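new request in #modeling-help
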Amino acid sequence: MNGRKEGPGGLEFELNAFQKDALNELGNIASCHAVTSLAEMTGVTMNIKVPPVEVVSIEGAEKKIAIEKMVAGIFVQLSGGFSGYLLVLFPERSAFSLIDILMGKMPGETKSIGTEMEESALMELGNMLASSFCDAIADFFQFSMMPSPPSFSFDMMSAMMENLMVAMAEAEKTEQVILFKCDFKDETEKGIYGYIMLFPHHDSLKNMLSLLEAEVK
Amino acid sequence: MATERLESESEDEVERYYAGIGEMKVAHNPHQLIIMGLGSCIGLALYDRPAKVGGIAHIMLPEGKDGSNTGKCCKFADIAVPVLVKEMLRHKTAKERIVAKMAGGASMFSAMDSLQIGDRNAIVVKEELKKAGIMLAGEDTGGNYGRTVTLDTCTGVFSVKTKDGIKSI
C-alpha cells in the first residue's frame, strides 16, 4: 500500500483517491447485497446509505459513536483469503422492532432482549447480513471468506467497538482501522436502522487493494 | 499531559472530567472523574482520602511493546500505572495514603474470549500496583458487559454503571 509507513504508534496508512473510490464502490455493492437479504427476510423495504470508507484511529472512533447507547451487536470473525472482523449493530429500538417482526409480535411489544429466543433471532439476522456482505466481497474478488459462528452482545456501543479495536490494535500493531459502514433504514415508520462495520486485517486490505488496482489495469 | 488541576478548592461547581482511551485525569474535591463505555479496557482509579484528590486512567492493553511509544501515556498498563501514580504525587498526595480501585476488562463477545485481553489487562494492572506499593481496595473486572465508571473525589466513591444498574465498589 502506498501510504503505509512505520509510525511511532505502529503501522499507519492513508488511502489515496483511487483506493478510496474503489473501496467505496465495493462497500456499496456488498451493502446492497446484505440489505436486500435483510429486506427479504423481514418483508420490510430498506433504504441504504453507504458513507465513504474511513480510516479511523481508536480515539477518533470514540468521538464518532454514541458511547453509552445500547445496541445489539453481532460479531463475526473472518478468515480464509480475507481476514478481519465484521460487526453488525442494531440500536436498541431497531433491535426491538426487528424482534417484533421476526417473532410475529405486535409492533412495540418487545421491550427488552430477555430470552434466548429473541437473542438468537437477532443473532441469526445479523449473521445473515454478515454472510451476504461477505459473499458479495468474496464473489467480487474470487477469494474465500470464511465467517466464524456469530457471537452476540446487547450492551453499550463503545464497549463493543473498543473491544474490537483493541484486539485489532494488539494483533496488527496498529491503532487505525479501515471502517466500511453501511447504514440502512426502513421506508415505513417502524424506524429500523443499523450498521455493518468491517475491520479488515492489514494484509487482507493490502491484498484487496492490489486486486482492485489490477482489475482497473 | 492530559491532566486537570483546578486552583480554587471551595466554591467550585462539580465538574465532570472524562478520560478517553489512553488518557488520564487527576482532579480534587468536588469534581468527578469519569470513563464511559469500558469494554476490554480497564478503568483504574486512585484516591487519596485525606487530600481528596483522585485520578483515573483509561488503560487499553497490558504492555507497551518496546517503550518507544510516543502516543497517549496511559494506553498500556505497565506504563500507565507508574505515570498515574507520579501525577497523583504531583498533586500533594502521599503514596501511603493512596488506594486503588478498578473496573472493566470484559470480553464483549464470546468469540473474543480466547484473546483474554481484559483478563491480561487486569493482571498487569494488579502487578504494577503491587510494584508501586499501592493497595487495591476493590475491583469489578471480567464478565461480558460494558461499564461506565465514576470516581467522586469528594466521597471517594467509585461507582460502576452497567446495563443492569449502578453499584459502588
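bot summary: Chain A is about 45% helix and 30% strand.
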